[in-house]
Amino acid sequence: MPEADRNAADLELLTGLAVEAGAIAMKWFREDPQVWMKEGESPVSEADFAVDNFLKGKLLDARPGYGWLSEETDDDLDRLKASRTFVVDPIDGTRGFINGMKQWCVSIAVVENNRPVAGVLECPVLKQTISASVDEGALLNGRQILVGDTVDAATICVTGPRSLQTAVGDLSDLNMERMPFVPSLAYRLAMMAMGEIDLALARCSAKDWDLAAADLIVHEAGGLLTDLDGNTLHYNCRDIRHGTLVASRVNGHDEMLDLARRAMDKTKN
Questions:
Q1: CATH number for the domain harbouring residue 239
Q2: What one-character DSSP code corresponds to residue 44?
Q3: Which residue in 5, 21, 156, 233 has the fewest CB atoms around it within 10 Å?
Q4: Under a CB-based contact definition with an 8 Å cutoff, are residues 265 and 173 in contact?
Q5: Is the pTM value of this prediction over 0.70?
Q6: Of 191, 190, 162, 193, whose CA–CA distance to 176 is shortest?
Q7: What's the rounded Cα separation, in Å, for the pair 12 and 18?
Q8: What is the residue range of 162's domain?
């Protein structure tokens, strides 16, 4: 099967199952689900586990040769032997989900050669399905999305940790509009892809499942997601952790990187 057809078939599979997974999660939304605390005081709910079990069964039944990496499944590293791997966050933004906030999503990607080739963010409360496959653009409910044009903007919208937002505002000649807190990192990046914000920042701590689907969506919408050195991210490696990240429009990304590096230095002092 040609690569483009294979990506399209995988995206169709991801999209259908993401919608079903979102419906499963909604059964617990604002219904006081049982919650446990993981290492690092990160919450996980019974909804996370239900969605994870559903997706693992359905996806691996459909693609038995694919690897599996999920936030809620123990990682046995068998995924490293697979040519393609599912990278899943059953509910990205669990803390917001538990607190009844709207901006959480089911995040599913297919990774090949350490880069995502198909990805979906399903945001059931917002009634948004955001998707992309390589070289086919990014879509919101079937319509193409593009990052905003910040080249001549006097004001740019920024999201990320409050300390970084403040430092960026202090260092930049541009007016910075700080966005309200969004619990899902994947959705924050999707906001950039949809043209709702101009700059997204993330401190080191994100894992593959937080990023893979959103990364592809950002790139296919005309943006870039990189580390502070300007490197694109690699997924399905032995180490799934990532450093400080910057997402912005391609044109102007170097300037945003410089601003982010100086903001990081400022917050350390």
A1: 3.40.190.80
A2: E
A3: 5
A4: no
A5: yes
A6: 162
A7: 10
A8: 155-268
